Each structure stands twice: as C-alpha cells, then as structure tokens.
Amino acid sequence: MFKSCKQLSQLTFMFNNNKAYDEFLFNFAKQLSSCKNLDYLNVQFNNNYSQGSYLTDLGKSLESCLEIKTILLQIKNNYLGNQCISDFCKSLKKCQNLMNLQLDFSRNNEISDQFLTDLGNQIQDYNNLTILDLDLSCNTIDTQGVMDFSVGLRECKNISRLSLNFYDNYIQDDGATNLCQNLPKNLKDLSLKLGGNQITQQGAIILSEALANYKMLESFNLFINKNLILSDGLAILARSIAQMKLLKYLTLNLTGSEISIDGLTKLGQELINCKNLKYFFLYVNNDLTLALQNLVQDLSLIKNLTNLTISISGDVRNQKYPIIFKFMKRCIRLVMIKIGFYFN
C-alpha cells in the first residue's frame, strides 16, 4: 500500500463505519513504516468494531517515522480496551520530533484508569510536545487514573495548548482538583471538559483556586456542566478568571448545575477585570433571567469585547427574555451577538 511512497510527508486516511476486517487494519499499520519522511498523519477508524491490536503495530511503524511532528488519531466507538492504546502511546516515545498529538478515543472504548496511569508515565518522555488534545469522554475513567495522569502531565514543560475531555466519566472532586493543580505551567490555551463527573461544590472551589495560577492564559474553555456545583464555587472561579489578565477567549458551560442568580451576577462583576476579553461564550440554564440582564450590563464595560454568545437551555416559553435585549444597546463595540434558546 505505501511501500512505494517513500517521499510521502503528509497522510490523511479515513476508514469509518465499515466494520473493517482486522487484517486490513494490520496491513495498513505495518506498511506505514515505509513512510520514513512522514511528518503529518491524520487517521480515523470510527465505528468499525474491530479489535484494537492493530494499534500496537501502528505504534511500532511510527517508531520508524523519525520526522513525524503531528499525529491526529480518532478511533471512536470501537471497544478498544486499555492495552493496545497503552502500547501505541509507549511507541510514541521514539518520535522525538513529535509536537502535536491529538487522540480521540471517546465513546464506548472501554478505557479505564489503567490507560491514563500508563499515559502519565509515558507522556513525560514526549520532550518536544507543545500541543496535546485528549478526548476520553464516555468511557469508564475514575479518580485514580486522572490523578496518576496529572503527575506525568505536570512534567510536560513545553505544552502551551492543552485540551482534555473527560465528559461523562467519574473523576469526582479528587480527580478534577489534582488535574488542575498539576497542569503544565506555560499554558496559553486551555480547554477542560469535565461535565457529568460528580464534581461537588468543594471540588469546584479547590479547582478554581488552582486555576488562579495560570495567569498567562489567552484562551480558556471550561465545561463543568451537569455537576453538583453551587454559586459559591462559581464565585471563586470568577475571581480566578479575573486574574487572567491576558485572556481573549472564554467559554463557560454551566448548564445542569445549581447556579443561582447571585452566582452569575458575581461572574459578571469579576469579568469586568478581563480587559482584553474579545470572545465570550456562555451556556446557562433557563432560570437565570435577571442574572443575564446584570451580566450583559457588566459585559458592556469591557471595551475589547466584540463577540458574545449566550446559549440558554430548558423550557423558555414562560421566561421574559426580551428584557435582556435592552442591555445590548450598551455593548456598542459588539460586532457579533448570538443568543440561542434550546428546549429540553
């Protein structure tokens, strides 16, 4: 397949929804070793329900691709299990030029703590990694795996862009707080999707206090929806965000949490201190009408804010949202406003 492609530098290969035979995937994985000059690889094997043992061979082939800088691997809904993915990531230690690693093993891959523990041990050796995007949503990850992973992640000094998606697992307070306390120190772009993980008020407070240490962030996306977080947790989170003086892009998903009007009002009061903020995306429940009015009023004081998106979920038929719009005229610098109403 690739034996004659010795000068190939970029490869994108998508084989989705095919119930692929393992033999085909094995052949693909083994022949990739012929591409010695490969520096960019993008592979998708979604919804094939194949055994994941071909990943071991794929990793071994990449050991021969000494020039590889970018690996994008998406294998959703394949029931892979821990071992084959751990073997693949272990091989990546040989790829010393690797700078951009994006792994999507979301949805029913039967990934548990063991893989994250192994990855935590291996990732310390990815010496030149600057971008890491890891999606393990909808698996069976618990607290211990995230804690072990965070210890290794802390040693990745060169990572400046980090995206972690642990949505709909069970990492709880200890997992979330340990993760935020051990993030790489030189981050400029951070995305954390922690929705549906049984994070409580106390966990949110410790998490928020840890995030206050990342003052160099320019982009911050935090999804803490569908947890057990109250207004006090949001207030401390808001104070931490207010210390990110370089922040330009902010996304907060607060849906499905017990946030009160007072909590969202405090968020707006703190965001006034983010004077460089240009883009703000907010997802909230439908019971915060008054708070949204106050929030928009506070946002109008941010001189650099040009793009505002507010997504309101729930039954909004009896809500008096039109009053929000009268505050929009104060946001005279906005060039884009999006307000979405979504029915549950």
CATH architectural arrangement of the domain at 203-210 and 233-344? Alpha-Beta Horseshoe
Principal-axes geometry comes out as elongated
CATH first level of the domain at 203-210 and 233-344: Alpha Beta
Give the H and E element order.
EHEHEHEHEHEHEHEHEHEHEHE
Number of DSSP E strands: 12
* Largest sheet features: 12 strands, parallel
Instruction: Tell me the fraction of residues in β-strands, as a range.
Output: 15-25%
Decide which structural class fits the backbone: alpha/beta
State the low-pLDDT regions, or none. none
Q: Averaging pLDDT over every residue, what do you get?
A: 90
CATH homology group of the domain at 203-210 and 233-344? Ribonuclease Inhibitor
Q: What fraction, in percent, of the residue positions are helical?
A: 25-40%
Helix count equals 11
Rg of Cα set:
22 Å
Cα(first) to Cα(last) distance is: 49 Å
Strand order of the largest sheet: 1-2-3-4-5-6-7-8-9-10-11-12
User: CATH topology of the domain at 203-210 and 233-344, what is it called?
Assistant: Leucine-rich repeat, LRR (right-handed beta-alpha superhelix)
